[in-house]
Design goal:
By secondary structure, chain A is of the alpha/beta class. Chain A has a single domain, classed as Alpha-Beta Complex (Maf protein), CATH 3.90.950. In chain A, 34% of the residues lie in helices and 26% in strands. In chain A, strands 1, 2, 3, 4, 5, 6 and 7 form a 7-stranded mixed β-sheet that branches. In chain A, helix 1 crosses helix 6. The longest helix of chain A has 16 residues. In chain A, 47% of the residues are buried.
Chain lengths: 182, 182
């Protein structure tokens, strides 16, 4: 099968996607073409508009992926703005915001936006539910992994990256896309 | 002089601009035409791209304005994302993030983007320096006004809205634009 173009500046996303794709005989190939991220609280919309934008430039089918962490007690902050917020206040900032907060529920959501050869966009989402830990723990993964404990686990994603690779939001979204395209 | 079109959904911005403009015999007229806010940490770039976008739709000279609060100890968070962050974590969230922080320096920045009849964009900025209060105080103004104390004052903008109207970042930016256009 022709490789699926994946617009991203992050080669780790490609590795991860290929890990999932190989079961389905699907191969992803990185294309570095920056696209504007719209200001919308939905990662699905960001991925949708990103895919459309890249398709309009290259006129070939393409996927983009956007993801974020949505924290219940913070009205789903930081959501689709996760990368910006992480850079600015980081995990210590999130823990401060949750000081004294009993509800520590949170979820990671990933959205894959796929624009087909006709310019029609579909999105595929993956969600992992869990909670925010009381302290920063673990050295694996990146971003919010050291403060996210998935359901049915006592360890953060950063303490248990093998588990993350099995159940991650991004893996679920890419898997759904593979099942659609194969 | 022909009124200057000001693309905004906020009629208060028009009132405020006209307050400043009348000294220079400049009149602003609201136009409601939503424009995409790009994801950039600079309010200047957001205003610039916004003005270009609206000009391309209406083919007439137009201004847009973007502003935000930039907090020193938080790496200039929330900056151009101020509206989103305020909606999500509000002033209590900002105070939590600054718990135990001695450096409470902050500034408000406003940028007016003006696209002229030839499609050329210029920006005009205004800044007010100050600090973040230890508690939420005052009922005037809106947004971050109840936690922002401007330099040489002991009161927040929300406690002293008259002062805000005199020295605000937005007033300075609009004033600069008026001096340019008159």
């Amino acid at each position: 099968m022709t490789p699926i173009l994946f617009a991203t500046s992050n080669p780790h996303k490609i590795e991860e996607a290929n890990e999932t794709g190989k079961k389905h005989n699907i191969n992803f190939k990185q294309i570095e073409l920056p696209y504007p991220e719209i200001r919308d609280e939905s990662v699905e919309k960001v991925a949708r508009e990103g895919a459309k934008f890249v398709f309009n430039k290259i006129k070939k089918p393409v996927i983009v992926e956007d993801s974020g962490i949505f924290i219940d007690a913070l009205n789903n902050f930081p959501g689709s703005y996760s990368a910006f917020v992480e850079k600015k206040i980081g995990n210590p900032g999130i823990l401060k915001l949750l000081t004294g907060e009993k509800n520590r529920g949170a979820k990671f959501i990933s959205a894959v936006g796929f624009c087909d050869a006709k310019g029609i966009v579909k999105t595929f989402t993956g969600t992992v539910y869990g909670k925010i830990s009381n302290e920063i723990k673990g050295t694996g993964g990146f971003g919010y992994d050291p403060i996210f404990i998935p359901e049915n686990s006592e360890l953060t994603f950063a303490e248990n990256p093998e588990l993350k690779n099995k159940i991650s939001h991004r893996k679920i979204a890419v898997e759904k896309f593979c099942l659609f395209i194969m």
